[in-house]
Amino acid sequence: MSNNKPAIRKRPRSVGGVNLTPLISALLLAGIKLALEQKKKAKASKAAKAAKGSKAKTASGRRKTI
Predict the structure, then answer these.
(1) What is the pLDDT of residues 19-28, one digit of tens each?
(2) Torsion angle, CA of 19/25/26/28, rounded to 10 degrees?
(3) What pLDDT is recorded for position 2?
(4) Is the pTM value of this prediction over 0.85?
(5) Rounded to an integer, what distance in angstroms lies between the CA atom of residue 22 and that of residue 13?
(6) Angle 36-40-44 (CA atoms, 0-180°, nearest 5)?
């Protein structure tokens, strides 16, 4: 008496006979890429702001003579 369960067959999601699985996958992938890109830009912007702020505090308006 083995307890073998039959494999569950997943039908592709379709509307009007059109398979939407590739479209759903593409949209998810695009969303993930966009989120990562925005996160990267935000991090770079934050680093640039921090660098600009520290530079403004230490830099003087005059040139030093050698």
Answers:
(1) 889 999 999 9
(2) 140
(3) 57
(4) no
(5) 10
(6) 170
